[in-house]
Amino acid sequence: MVAEVGVGNTQFLNERSLQLLKTLVERYISDGQPVGSRALSKDSDLKLSPATIRNVMADLEDLGLIHSPHTSAGRVPTVTGYRLFVDTLLTVKPVESKDLSLLQQRLTVSDDSNDMIGAASRLLSELTQMAGVVTLPKRDLVCLRHIEFLSLSHTRVLVIFVTNEHEVHNKIIHTSKVFSAAELQQAANYLNTIYSGRSLDTVRKAVLKELQEDQERMSQGMLDAVRMAQLAFDHNNEKDDYVLTGETNLMGFSELSDMDRLKNLFEAFSQKQGVIHLLDQCMQAQGVQIFIGEESGYRAFDHCSLVTSSYSVSDEVVGVLGVIGPTRMAYEKIIPFVDMTAKLLGAALNPKSKTPL
Amino acid sequence: MVAEVGVGNTQFLNERSLQLLKTLVERYISDGQPVGSRALSKDSDLKLSPATIRNVMADLEDLGLIHSPHTSAGRVPTVTGYRLFVDTLLTVKPVESKDLSLLQQRLTVSDDSNDMIGAASRLLSELTQMAGVVTLPKRDLVCLRHIEFLSLSHTRVLVIFVTNEHEVHNKIIHTSKVFSAAELQQAANYLNTIYSGRSLDTVRKAVLKELQEDQERMSQGMLDAVRMAQLAFDHNNEKDDYVLTGETNLMGFSELSDMDRLKNLFEAFSQKQGVIHLLDQCMQAQGVQIFIGEESGYRAFDHCSLVTSSYSVSDEVVGVLGVIGPTRMAYEKIIPFVDMTAKLLGAALNPKSKTPL
DNA sequence: ATTTAGCACTCCTCCAAGGTGAGTGCCAGC
DNA sequence: GCTGGCACTCACCTTGGAGGAGTGCTAAAT
To answer: What percent of chain A has pLDDT over 70?
Structure first.
């Protein structure tokens, strides 16, 4: 008997029903208890008796927006109900000024990008009392500043490269022949001259192309350099990662007090790939993205919501940050807060604000 | 009425009582249920009636070795009981051959020390079904192989140094004046010549001494080099860290099913300093070290036991690894397993088995 | 046609009572 | 010093009823 209802179905509902749904969701978010007709009648500005409210609630239940845990409990929003609320009913509250100043302050204490990522994650979790997550900037989209080779032992070579002014990466590669320090230096010089300032993705593609096409016209030194670059920027080198903090905050929420659920969730956190995939999806969409409960498609997140925003450096989206908490969260504050954090992190990471290399 | 009892009090107990304590602890570890006199009478080889056993149990309880949760439950070992069991009654079982081969195999798949540390932690948690922890090798005790400087922007200089053949560290320092690439190269050469092969601790001390005493006889270049070395090896640079895996395994144990306890424990894990301090203590003692329940002194670990062993590279203790689980764990298997893992990790990390730089 | 009051009903939650069983402590006899 | 017997304790489970919140339905009021 429950009608299947998409999200854009406000036309089926009159102003009053929507108003009541809004009040119900707000009330449930603040109390955590199923909301009954009597309570809703008092809470809403509409002067309606509980009986009338009950009729409306029955309609909302038929549409699959709310649901009652058992006969004599009040109503609780469903995922669809939350979705409608978040998409069309929500009145966002501006970020509190004390939060804002904390963000600005603590995102600018270090000039190391890893420190900034960590700080952002901690800010997200501390100020929301939920879990905060920030992906490391995507290497693909980031610019190569400088590359250097260091011989470790015969064919083992340490590659160091700096991207975007702040980030330092290193990797050990195994070369096919033994190189002298001078040869390595020469290779690095060559690569720096032609690839510096270009995105890693571009570099990777260019390297592939050179190896396929232009081998004849290249000197042995250039060829060696390009081969080493290929090893250094090898795709599977790139293990996406994120910084998650405040997971323990999630243990306080009653909706996650079930040990099995909690275990699944924490396992998902430590396995990472699922979460990474989810966050990658959020990177596509500019701005704030929200997954409520099962919407994420990952069973471990069934009772959680995820509010994310992508962050950009030099107008290029490079990563995602967000907050993980129970579906019952204060969206009206969390959404602008996540949005703001993303903007400020992007600004803090922006190399343009620093002197160039 | 409970006598205060230290650990070396086996003289107060006859052979039979000890035998019964041993059987009781073993039984409790395998079942998780308080052990009654009837069960113990059947389990032990001694042909004694439950009534006799009850008398002995009363003695053991007076000595504070066992305790009954309530009048009509069986007995459960106390921390002191476990301690006596572990110290003098335990018959360790050799590491299972399938575990051994897994250890050997998976500790040698990579030559990157971070990979090895990670692998060790995962092995510890997977094969024990508890949480595994491995500290990163102490930098102090590790040998400097190679140092390199790279200019980032005016006074920001990237320091890269390789220790122990495998580990690569990097840090950004701010110098007091602007250096050219050639000057940096020269400084690196100088430092490599005099400090390569010496432990970071020695280097740090030598640097301090030079700056205090020998400034006159040094050239400007040497002085610059030493000053940069001081910044690079600055003590607070060194944040001890560990790799913890399989925390979620702990969520399965009934003794940790209390949400508050679990939250405290996980918070201790993410705050790290407490755990680091505890692990540091274990580094003093050569070989396997065990903390049972409250013995650790950290409230978060009250219902856990920690079995650790230090691991060494070139006969020098550089780190600690271990397993965290409920006090009720299979010590007879865990202890030799942790011991073995430490030995194999040390062997895998040993630079002597590889070609020198 | 919509809103409201009234009423019977459902079902969760809390509490107390009583039965069951595991295990104990103690005592008397071997 | 060991053992069997016995009364006792206490956690655990089930049952059953009281209380309360909230519902759905119906009929009357607006």
So the answer is: 92
Cβ-contact B145, B165 below 8 angstroms: yes
- What nucleotide is nearest A61 when CA is compared to C1'? D23
Q: Measured between alpha carbons, how far is B144 from B150 in angstroms, rounded to an integer?
A: 18
Strands in B217-315 per DSSP E: 242-245, 288-292, 304-313
Q: What is d(CA A258, CA A265) in angstroms, rounded to the nearest whole number?
A: 11
Say whether the CB atom of A55 is under 7 angstroms from strand C. yes
Nearest-Cα residue of chain A relative to residue B355: A153
More confident residue, B163 or B33: B33
> Both tokens of residue B126?
């997977």
Q: How far is CA A240 from CA A122, A214, B171, B327, in A?
A: 19, 32, 22, 37
User: CA of B169, closest CA in chain A: separation in Å?
Assistant: 9
For B47-101, the pLDDT digits (tens) are 899 999 999 999 999 999 999 999 989 999 999 999 999 999 999 999 999 999 9
Asked whether the beta carbons of residue B247 and residue A259 sit closer than 8 angstroms, the reply is no
User: Does residue A240 surpass a pLDDT of 90?
Assistant: no
User: Is any atom of strand C within 7 angstroms of residue B246's beta carbon?
Assistant: no
pLDDT tens track for A116-134: 999 999 999 999 999 999 9
- Provide the residue count of chain B: 357
By C-alpha distance, the chain A residue nearest B148 is A150
Place of tokens 């560990």: B242
Per-residue pLDDT, averaged over A215-223, amounts to: 80
pLDDT at position B14 is 83
pLDDT grade for A236, boundaries at 50, 70 and 90: low
Please give the model's pTM, rounded to 2 decimal places.
0.89
Subunit contact B259:A263, Cβ cutoff 8 A: no
Picking from B286, B283, B334, the residue whose alpha carbon sits closest to that of residue B124 is: B334
Per-position DSSP letters for A201-270, written without gaps between them: HHHHHHHHHHHHH-TTTS-HHHHHHHHHHHHHT-GGG----EEEE-GGGGGG-GGG-SHHHHHHHHHHHH
| Partners of B163 in the β-ladder | B144, B167
Alpha-carbon gap, residue A164 to A162, rounded angstroms: 7
